Amino acid sequence: MFYLHRRNMSDSMILTLKESSEWIECLAKLPPEQQDVYFTPDYHQLYEANGDGKATCFVFKREEHIAIYPFLINRINDFGYRLNNY
User: Fold this and answer.
1) Are the C-beta atoms of 27 and 35 separated by less than 8 Å?
2) Model confidence, pTM
3) Spans of the chain, pLDDT less than 50
4) Which of 68, 15, 66 is nearest to 45 (CA)?
C-alpha cells in the first residue's frame, strides 16, 4: 500500500493486485447500488493478464466517505505517441 498523503482524517492510496484484499474491502464500503463487477480487482486482473496495462485502484477516504477509481496504467509510447524528454 502506498500513501500519497495524510491530512485531516483523509487518506489517499494507490492499490495494485498485490493488495487485492484491501481493494475488495474498500469496494465493500461503497453503498450496494454503487458496487459493480467493473470495479473489482478480478475484473482488472483479466486485462492485466492480457497485457492491457497494470491494474491499479486509487482510493480516497475522508471520515465515513470513500471514493474508488480503478484503472489500467499503460506507457503512452506503446500507443504510438512520442513525448519530448524534458
Assistant:
1) yes
2) 0.75
3) 1-9
4) 15
